[in-house]
Amino acid sequence: MWVVVCGGGVVVVVFVLVEFGLLFFLLGALVLYAVLGGERFANGLSRVLLPMAQIDPYTATIIDANSIRPREGANHFAEETDVRFSVDLRGVIPRMAEVQYRVDGQPHWIPLQMAPTRKQPSKEATRFVVTLEEVRHSFDFLVVAGDARSAMYRVEVLRRPRIKSLQVQLAPPAYTGLGRQDGGSTGEVAALAGTHVTLQVTASKSLRSAEFVTESGQSFALKKDAAAQVEDKTEIWTTDFLLVVPNAKLTSGQLVRRISAPDQFQLKLVDNHGHENSN
Question: Is the pLDDT of residue 12 over 70?
């Protein structure tokens, strides 16, 4: 503030040079930052002026969120399968990118280095990939590349369907005079030719299908026993066949499905996610 004394009176002339100087300095700094900052400045200004818009902070490396795989809708994997991660980057492309994942119940994040692929999606983007082998537990993950960091994503690892129990019932041929017998629960079928065999399989979870497949190449579907649901929501599936010797002649009314001994079989279970049981 400057004060000028004139004659008998005092004339006060107020110059707000300090205030104007500070204002000009701030405006100059702002203009300089806008010129040098470019997109970074525009992003920062937008975040200040539009605080409710949830604008992501500026980064030199840009992670294409839509390119991240796996993502919602395709993030369910059977246990002991491989999970392939991929992401497309734009802007300043780093030499390496990274997936960080944390297994459910564990406190620490585990890094996986991603490498660029030979075949790229476009001239503007670079795709990075990495594979996590034989996953066994569900986990969260995110992508870190350069100065950018993605949102968090989820991978659900589901247990494969399993055979909780297998019951074999045997009905010997009529000429033996024998009644129905318990064939045990080991899965081994040892009986006279002409024996009617019934298999009852209890699955560990709800199934889309179950199939009986022999080493000799025969296969047929099992049927779900809707009337035999158990308390823990597991399911019971059944099938039957006739045990015969090679070139056996079937009499009228006997089962068309027949297995020629000796042979081996396996049961293929497929759950509602399309995951098969382990052999």
Answer: no
